[in-house]
Amino acid sequence: MIECRMRYYSTRNKNESVNFATAALAGLAPDGGLFVPDEIPSLPASAKSSLGSMGFCDIAMETIKPYVKDEIPDNALSDIVGSAFTFDAPFVAVGDRYTAELFHGPTAAFKDFGARFMARSFSYLRRGEDRPLRILVATSGDTGGAVADGFFEVPGIFVTVLYPKGRVSPLQERQIAGLGKNISALAVEGSFDDCQRLVKAALADEDLKKRMSLSSANSINISRLIPQAVYYSAAAGRAFAGLTDPDGSATPRLTNQTSLTGQPSQYAAQTERTRGKGMPVTLCVPSGNFGNLTAGLYAMKMGAPITQFIAATNMNKTVPDYLDSGEYLARDSKATLSNAMDVGAPSNFERMASHFSWDEMKRIILGVYVNDEETKETIARIAKDEGYFLDPHSAVGWKGVDKLRAQNKLQEGTVGILCTAHPAKFSETVEPLAGKVPVPASLSRAMDRTVDAKTIPAEVPALIDFLNEIN
Ligand SMILES: *Cc1c(COP(=O)(O)O)cnc(C)c1O
User: Fold this and answer.
1) Count of CB atoms situated within 10 Å of the CB of 305
2) 412: closest CA among 285, 277, 299?
3) Whole-angstrom Cα distance, residue 261 to residue 258?
4) What are phi and psi of 25, to 5 degrees?
5) How far is the CA of 466 from the centre of ligand 1 (A)?
6) If you measure from the C-alpha of residue 291 to the centroid of ligand 1, how many angstroms do you get, rounded to a whole number?
């Protein structure tokens, strides 16, 4: 019999491989490495030539199918994709470039794509299991919201999110602790590190493991990475075909103050343009842990028409420095305005390095870094000049393009910036610089929720007692 499943091996051991289900449900490989596919498949020729006009879910099917073949049949995959990607990801024109807006999902950041797909694929892969799965997540703020929302009302799975009490924003707390049903929240009297320590201890507790199926849903899970390749194919397809999407429901333009309805406009009418049609496509990725950029590299290898990437970081510039020197030096992280990118030792670098040598990376990726002053200046300038609001992470991307252009390092052609969060999520930074930011419906709905969290001390028995009680 021909083995036609995709195999996944650990970045630290290429001799043993597992299938998609095992890699996804385990998260991290037993040796501490990250799971990577043994080959990056190609998109079918028919899809490659029509990416520009395909709907998002059709692109998702073609992109994800080869990674899960024989494990998730097409009809089940189609259900997963259809219920995960229920929002826009428009490629819109802003000034002299384009933005791929990845913040139209329920928590207004790109992590919605990965978290929602991961949750639904877990539920499918565990069908037939009678023991429910309990997922433990420690969060400093943002990831917890995306994971909680991703798993909300997903059958057979319960989630407990641990966050440092009093150290997350009011919006974040409502996103984590306002959902209820299968999502519970623990406000830990301690730091994020305490939350992580508690989760690790519970996951390793033999007694607890006998009584319940426990797992984590960490950011390096391969089932969060693969779905992120989809929006690269969508954006690059549109750029290459010379198409622009209309503004989405949450597009943060000055002129969109009253129309943030939350209703998807799924590519209602694309506009054709001649500028950039058939030209090289450069995509700029504001990066921290480098999962997003790794997914972009997968999309490019699969055949999406991307010529070049820009890895834009804040002052945590480990990867731009590596691209420059060939030497990888992880360091402690520094706090910046674009705090979801405050990573000094990006975990996904191990994945990038398992697929590409330094020479190969240097050929495809331009590194650039941007400081807080430049980030602020960019938010203010783009609001004034273009009537468009950037969040601090997306502003790092915008400024990164400006810097590389000034150094003549960019190829001619279409430049798209992946906008990773909605500016309303960071209004305390953006509004003093740019004025009142329109709030998308998803975020105002979240603000209306009531927080329901149990406070616990930062001690392992307190978490274990809680888990014993609710199960
Ligand atoms: C997580 C995050 C990033 C960084 O993405 P990586 O995949 O970790 O590189 C950038 N912007 C926002 C808003 C994020 O939440």
Assistant:
1) 21
2) 277
3) 8
4) -70, -25
5) 31
6) 8
- Between the CA of 334 and the centroid of ligand 1 the distance, in Å, is 15
Residue 126: pLDDT band (50, 70, 90) is: very high
pLDDT exceeds 50 at position 289: yes
420 lines ligand 1 (CB under 6 A): yes
Quick: pLDDT tens for 154-195.
Answer: 999 999 999 999 988 889 999 999 999 999 999 999 988 899
Task: Using CA atoms of 26, 32, 38, 41 in order, give the dihedral in degrees to the nearest 10.
Answer: 60
Helix (H, G, I), strand (E, B) or coil at 270: coil
Index of the ligand 1 atom closest to the CA of residue 343: 8
For residue 391, which atom of ligand 1 is closest to its CA?
13
pTM for this entry: 0.93
Mutate to test the pocket of ligand 1, among 420, 425, 429 (most ligand atoms within 8 A of CB): 420
Tokens describing residue 443: 């975020």
Can you tell me which atom of ligand 1 is nearest the CA of 393? 11
CA of 286 from ligand 1 middle (Å) equals: 7
Place of tokens 């059958």: 155
CA of 131 to the centre of ligand 1 (A): 33
Surface-to-core class of residue 200, CB atoms within 10 Å of its CB (0-12 exposed, 13-18 middle, 19+ buried): middle
Q: How far is the CA of 70 from the centre of ligand 1 (A)?
A: 31
CB proximity list for 82: less than 8 A, separation 6 or greater? 57
What digits encode the pLDDT tens for the residues 97-118?
999 999 999 999 999 999 999 9
Q: Which two tokens stand for residue 288?
A: 């921290």
Alpha helices in 85-184 (DSSP H): 111-125, 142-151, 170-177
> Which protein residue's CA is at the shortest distance from atom 1 of ligand 1?
340
Q: For the chain, what is the mean pLDDT? A: 92
Asked if pLDDT for residue 94 goes beyond 50, the answer is yes
Give alpha helix (H) positions in 347-422.
349-355, 358-364, 372-386, 392-406
Identify the pLDDT of residue 142: 79
CA-wise closest residue to 80 among 114, 54, 117, 112: 117
Q: Which of 102, 107, 110 has most ligand 1 atoms within 8 Å of CB, for mutation?
A: 110
